[in-house]
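To illustrate the input format used throughout this study, we show a single complete record. The first block contains the structure-token representation of the backbone; no residue identities are included at this stage. The design step must infer an amino acid for every position from geometry alone.
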């Protein structure tokens, strides 16, 4: 990147096709992959159906009435309305695909054959691997989280499982799709024929929760919700909660930080011993946190090389030291928007507002 105002992907054009009837979880993944490319400088043409992408009306809503989700996932893009059910709309899309470098689209899509016939490299996001009968399976982020075992990981063991907050499944798939997109663009830039890319949410979640499969293979039981039997727990402190986390090699520093002689007992020397005596261990650890604030705990622990982490509310995250130091939240109109969590030669990629729906 020679001139300071040059963005790494600004020479590429990408068509993002949001088909009208695809499940929201696939639409979110496609939109995130396109968002990353657009914020990195690519020209991303977002093709919307007449009336606009349904995500424009998805909650939660900002005070002015627009969808916060749409605003976040469509920064720096351009919008184009095409009726892909008609010949003229399909012809216009075909023309775009012959001049673009890549095309992001979801399965099932009525325009899949059209995308694959174009000169743009197809980047497809689907719910399941091609070997599965997708038509016979329900498609939602909730069902995919269940299939990947992630619902078995969150919450207390004696209560109903909890789904992950936000749209982490779709976002993991979107990041995966962008990785494939970046590889395709690199191949094209080098003069090679870029292979098509296909990402399935089910496989992405198996990768994210790899411990489910490996644990079942190793012990016959997939790891799940351990609650108060867990090695790492959330404990209360003076002004909130803190996550107690440390590696095996950080146990001596953790023990010294807490400073309770009972932790010198040999039954706590090994990870297996700590797990076997976890209730007694936390009976010793928990009082140390009770009279201290999150800031006091984090500062003291970091000085000892122990990664205890304070639990922040969303509003508190806006002003956390790391976010402020990196300028992570960019001002967009009347609200602040997270930037891409990367820097290029010390420079952040400030997003531009999401496009208005063309008349």
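Output of the design step:
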């Amino acid at each position: 990147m020679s001139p300071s105002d040059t963005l790494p992907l600004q020479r590429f054009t990408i068509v993002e096709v949001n088909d009208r009837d695809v499940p929201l979880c696939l639409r979110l993944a496609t939109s995130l992959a396109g968002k990353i490319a657009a914020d990195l400088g690519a020209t991303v043409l977002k093709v919307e159906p007449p009336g606009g992408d349904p995500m424009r009306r998805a909650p939660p809503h900002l005070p002015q009435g627009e969808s916060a989700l749409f605003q976040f996932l469509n920064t720096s893009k351009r919008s184009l309305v095409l009726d892909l059910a008609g010949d003229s709309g399909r012809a216009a899309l075909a023309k775009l695909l012959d001049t673009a470098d890549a095309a992001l689209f979801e399965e099932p899509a009525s325009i899949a054959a059209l995308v694959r016939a174009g000169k743009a490299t197809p980047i497809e996001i689907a719910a399941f691997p091609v070997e599965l009968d997708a038509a016979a399976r329900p498609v939602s982020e909730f069902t995919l989280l269940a299939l990947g075992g992630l619902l078995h990981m969150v919450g207390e063991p004696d209560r109903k499982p909890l789904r992950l907050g936000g749209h982490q499944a779709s976002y993991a798939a979107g990041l995966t799709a962008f990785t494939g997109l970046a590889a395709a663009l690199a191949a094209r830039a080098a003069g090679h024929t870029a292979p098509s890319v296909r990402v399935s949410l089910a496989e992405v979640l198996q990768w994210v929760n790899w411990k489910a499969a490996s644990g079942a293979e190793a012990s016959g039981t997939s790891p799940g919700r351990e609650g108060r039997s867990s090695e790492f727990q959330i404990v209360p402190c003076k002004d909130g909660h803190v996550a107690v986390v440390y590696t095996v090699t950080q146990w001596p520093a953790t023990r010294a930080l807490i400073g309770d002689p009972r932790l010198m007992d040999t039954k706590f020397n090994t990870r297996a011993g700590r797990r076997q005596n976890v209730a007694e261990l936390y009976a010793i650890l928990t009082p140390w946190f009770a009279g201290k604030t999150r800031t006091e705990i984090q500062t003291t622990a970091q000085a000892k090389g122990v990664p205890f982490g304070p639990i922040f509310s969303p509003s508190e995250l806006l002003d956390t030291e790391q976010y402020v130091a990196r300028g992570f939240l960019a001002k967009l109109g009347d609200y602040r928007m997270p930037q891409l969590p990367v820097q290029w030669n010390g420079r952040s990629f400030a997003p531009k507002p999401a496009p208005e729906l063309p008349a």
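Structural context for interpreting the output: The chain has a mean pLDDT of 91. The CA atoms of residues 45 and 306 lie 46 Å apart.
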